[in-house]
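ESCALATION

Customer reports they have been waiting on this structure for their group meeting. Please prioritize. Original submission:
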Amino acid sequence: KSFFIDVPTLNITPELLQNLPEEYQKIFKDFTPSGQSGLKVTYEHIDQDSKPRFLITLDCKGCSFKDSRFPVPLFGVMGRIKSNGNEISADHLTGTCFDGRVEGSMRMDIEDSSYMYKGDFRFSEMDMNQMFHEVFKTDQKWHGLLSGKINFNIDKNAQKGLGAKGNIVLTEGNVSDVPIALSIINILIEGF
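Update from on-call: job pushed to the front of the queue and completed.
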């Protein structure tokens, strides 16, 4: 048996996500996707003794994603997300985050329940005040634009599930409250 499905435009809604296989429902529950995407499914099952092979491809057309644990929303996401049942991969994603540009790639292992994922993202001109207000829940007024790159690993089941390294450049701004800035740097170093 084999088949191919091609849906050029699909609205990603909560109702659609509820009808996915259970393992995908768990993943998308955390990422809360929305927007439009193209969908392609290739399925092949040669005989009863072999495991079925399939490839699901989403062509994001301005989607939004927000991880329930890490409050860093992505908007206007363009790019291709693929799954073969063992992993979900995304290469050359672009979008916006805190009014800045983001581009990069990520991989998620979905064979076990830990849903470990890792990625590399570059970002430019992210609004520092908006980011610190959303991520660190601070009322402190910040001024500046953040650019840089980050490599991250996330274990959804670990106590401190985020590991990251990279560099950040602040332009057109300043960090006026040193104790608060140091505590935020500490959070970034230790993880969430």
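Sent to customer with the following note: The CA atoms of residues 128 and 144 lie 5 Å apart.
Escalation resolved.
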